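Checklist before submission:
- one chain only
- standard amino acids only
- sequence pasted in full

Submission:
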Amino acid sequence: MGRGFFLTFEGLDGSGKTTQIKKLTAWLEANGRQVTVTRQPGGTVIGNRIRDLLLDSRTQNLAPRAELGLMFSDRAQGIAEVILPALEAGHVVVCDRYTDSTEAYQGGGRQLGSEIVLKLHDAMCGGLQPDLTILLLPDFDASLARARRRNDRNKRGGTDESRFESEDEAFYRRVYDKYREIAARDTLRVVTMEGDARIGEIHRRIVKVVEERLSR
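Returned file contents:
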């Protein structure tokens, strides 16, 4: 059986990744594809414990490099336990966030720079890159506002994953700018969906790109 296809979704929280992943997964399965959906941080028992630590607003005084190390520990576990086995079984792997997120949030937002992130990617991930990355970049202010409203709802429901949403606008501007830098650097792998089009329209754009890449 041939190697599967590795697809990642990137963007700020509130950019619509969750919705588009669900819609694309349904389309892929309806077209006879075996799909494995995962996320980072998380996606494994160990990864979910790391996710709780990283995203809980009660986690305080976590040094940026410690945060970076935890992100890659989660990623290495996810690759070994979920991603590589699924690719070897010929699945389409759809992953919510991957190393681009770390470069954007820790490299850009935390101002650690890209070099340390890319070196750790080579060391911890064996250089495994997605075949395609969909980067969702809707309006900056609207995206951040949606993320904060969602996390307020989650807190009331007993789930606290708002540690990053408590950062100031300057942090998120650096993340946003780093995403644009990544997209400009890797134009073959990263396809950017900009603007605030309707959910259905964005889905149709994504399907067109994915269909074309899978047919190669």
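Reviewer check: The domain at 5-214 is CATH 3.40.50.300 (Rossmann fold).
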